[in-house]
């Protein structure tokens, strides 16, 4: 029997006009900018109207595995389920990057009958936000190199330039390059490199800005390098923030689409959680909160990355407070954490599941006891899950005082998420004692250690001599009060991607620190994390195609 793919399901479901979706969301026509029949941008000035906020629900997950977890699928399905229960729920998601779409994942718009559509547009160019971010990033790079070529009045040390060009594609060939070759008129030769667009600080700035004026201020604060005397050089010093903001003025507005069941879905911004802060924009989260009784949002990768940054960075900056947290897991992924090869994940294995469960339980414990938030585990169902395996997950969660709800949204859409939705509604009415994992006034090394010890359960963090010196310099320059954005592998609590489960006693090595002064945080690079991914041996791009009628296949 043919099991339809995600793209086949998406293409078989009729979409409603986006004007109807906007009306269902409560977006007036004066705030709507149409991008065809099924996409629109929403003017953020809508937020100037006084509205009571709804409940904020954060969806996160265990450390990802090749078996898949289904965080976006669960987020979409939960929103559909809440609406089936008569609640005015809206969903707020991140935009996919072309890097994973053509690299490993092949798409990031949910799955099965819990998707946002038009999924092809969302996974590809969408409304051009990422292209605008890339253009603004590269304009700043061009103005920086032009300043040096035209006499370097600011005295920029070409060996201390921190700003890179970017492109929204996995391309390891561009990680380290030499440019400006070919003679005096071709620029000043120097070592350079590219980041993927979602790792650009401009992505983080866009996601944390409130409006165009805040955007320009943040863009102007971005540090692009240092002078020979060690003084930071900013985009404002290069008089670049106005032109960059002009490129970004439309990208600053959230995008509105729909789920397969017609639930309004806002999608905006998409920084990776392993190399950036991993959350959609503050604007789109506030918009969903202002328009809905329940706003369901997600944070990238596992709770040690996306949720930690959502809570310690985004909530701290924006004054947000989640009312409930959903931690997504699958029996298959937990067995992978227990040491089962991918080819054997469909076979019942209670011993391996028992070994893998500590990964889930640590994330749950962090949400409940480190951050003080009510939590439920969503077990994303697979047909191969056995009753004994599901009962073991439920029993272990109950021992921590946390419920576990079976989620069947991939196969059944919103109808498969009603049990989960009812538990989320109950949790939203419970009292909570939300707190951060560290004090923003602590030193940079102390903040890094707090994350490593309290969230990762490491023995501690070790800063290399270079990183230790950078920490001292950043504190001297006045950046010590900023929160920390840990750039770390998504596959493990540690900085070693091969260390699965719930390791303890390890150390996290921080090899480099850099300030993202516009975004407002310090980036700590650990392990072998890179800001420009490469393509795998068999890229997803090899299976993506389009026919003579423009119908796309291969996205999943």
Written overview of the protein:
It contains 18 helices and 25 strands. The chain is an alpha/beta fold and 556 residues long. The strands form 6 sheets. Strands 1, 2, 3, 4, 5, 6, 14, 15, 16, 17, 18 and 19 form a 12-stranded mixed β-sheet that branches. A 4-stranded mixed β-sheet has the order 20-22-23-21. Strand 22 (507-516) and strand 23 form a beta hairpin.
Averaging pLDDT over every residue, what do you get?
95
Helix content: 25-40%
Give the beta-strand count: 25
Overall structural class, as computed from helix and strand content, comes to alpha/beta
Number of helices: 18
Low confidence ranges:
none
Over all CA atoms, what is the radius of gyration? 23 Å
Question: How much strand content do the residues show?
Answer: 15-25%
Principal-axis shape equals globular
The biggest sheet, with number of strands, parallel, antiparallel or mixed sense and barrel status, is: 12 strands, mixed
Distance between the termini: 19 Å
